[in-house]
Amino acid sequence: MIRVGLIGYGTAGRDVAKAILGGQAGNTRLAAVLVRDTGKYTDAPESGLITDSEEAFFACRPDVVVETAGHEAVIRYAETSLSHGCDFMVVSVGAFCDQALHDRVMTSASRHGKRVLVPSAAIAGLDRIAAAAQGPLDSVTLTTRKPVKAWRGTFAEEVVDLDTVEKPTVIFEGNARESSRVFPESVNVSAALSLAGVGFEATQVRVLVDPTIDKNIHEVSAKGLFGEVRIEVQNTPSPNNPKTGYIVAMSVARALKNLSSPLVIG
To answer: Which of 57, 105, 141, 225 has the least C-beta neighbours within 10 A?
Structure first.
């Protein structure tokens, strides 16, 4: 049985824990949950230690550590997890827009014979893009549209008045490295797409506030030797956190299931 250590117990973390405990994540067991302050959590999972002690967390000897706590958690725990002999599954993949961090983590993974795992999370088609990147892959473009409520408390408030916006409005246009810095909680999909395809600088990104929709919509287009692909996904936002969707935890659960499944698709 694969022992899972979970970093973060917010919306996505709770959903991942629920999937593990409910048997949707394959032959896995929740070993421990690492949070900043255990005093803030009265709804601890049914099994597995919940702790704010890094030492106690790794003493539970997880086989894989799943990060659901944001970019700072990736910076703090990716290399540490790998050095403790754990695979590291990263949801906040936008942290890797920092090339120095990316290089350190990849070096650590190689040194310790472990893996950095990136689930598809809020996007689709990463398997197709990764295959097409065997090359050549000429262009990859991501257009992200989210409803107004998803942009509260983000950089978008400096660009557009969220209380009065009436039509789809572009709030960012550029490459994926910059988009991941500007929208660390909302455009992790651009980082995952970049790692699968042509890199952060060559991946083009458009981001819109769209008051006409109620779902988070990501559109991917790519061209290359393989042909051409266009993919649109519409993710239902979580009622507890509109910046994320139900599919994130579902994707993590599936990626965990693949670690022990005799059949892996994609």
So the answer is: 225
CB 85 within 8 A of CB 111: no
Those residues whose C-beta lies under 8 Å from the C-beta of residue 100, and which sit 6 or more positions away, are none
pLDDT tens readout for residues 36-94: 998 888 777 777 789 999 999 999 999 999 999 999 999 999 999 999 999 999 999 99
> What is the CA 210 to chain-centroid distance, rounded?
22
Q: How far is CA 195 from the centre of its chain?
A: 12
- 71, 84, 102, 218: the catalytic one is 218
Domains and CATH numbers, the chain: 2-117+247-258 (3.40.50.720), 126-235 (3.30.360.10)
Residue 102 annotated among the catalytic residues of the structure: no
What predicted TM-score, i.e. pTM, was given to this entire model?
0.89
Give the count of alpha carbons within 13 A of 62, CB side only. 31
Which residue type, as a one-letter code, is found at position 12? A
Tell me the three state secondary structure of residue 162: coil
